[in-house]
Write a structure and sequence with these properties.
CATH topology: 30s Ribosomal Protein S19, Chain A
Shape: globular
Strand content: 5-15%
Strand order of the largest sheet: 1-2-3
Number of domains: 1
Largest sheet: 3 strands, mixed
CATH superfamily: Ribosomal protein S19/S15
Number of helices: 2
Order of helices and strands: HEEEH
Distance between the termini: 47 Å
Length: about 90
């Protein structure tokens, strides 16, 4: 179920405040994010973030194409696995 339009987009206030502090101080370090449900705003364009996927942090550079998406869309939590025994059967044929 999607979020109501009258509520607006969800952005973690502490993340927004931290980004503005880094931008004002002209610090180019990555900002670590555990909250994957926050929406990427216009102000975040050009920012460097590290999004946590449950195992490690994944680097994310925000561009204009990513505005309106959530941070979680760019850090995958599951690893794609393929059947090894099927590959060996294909090679034998």
């Amino acid at each position: 179920m999607s979020r109501s339009k009258w509520k607006g987009m969800f952005v973690c206030y502490s993340l927004y405040k931290k980004y503005l502090f880094f931008k004002k101080a002209k610090i180019n370090n990555f900002i670590q994010i555990y909250n994957r449900s926050s929406v990427i705003l216009n102000e975040f364009v050009g920012g460097h973030f590290k999004v946590y996927n449950g195992l490690k942090f994944i680097n994310l550079f925000v561009t204009e194409n990513k505005i309106g998406c959530k941070f979680g869309e760019f850090s995958f939590t599951r690893k794609l696995r393929r059947c090894i025994h099927l590959k060996s059967e294909i090679k034998k044929k």
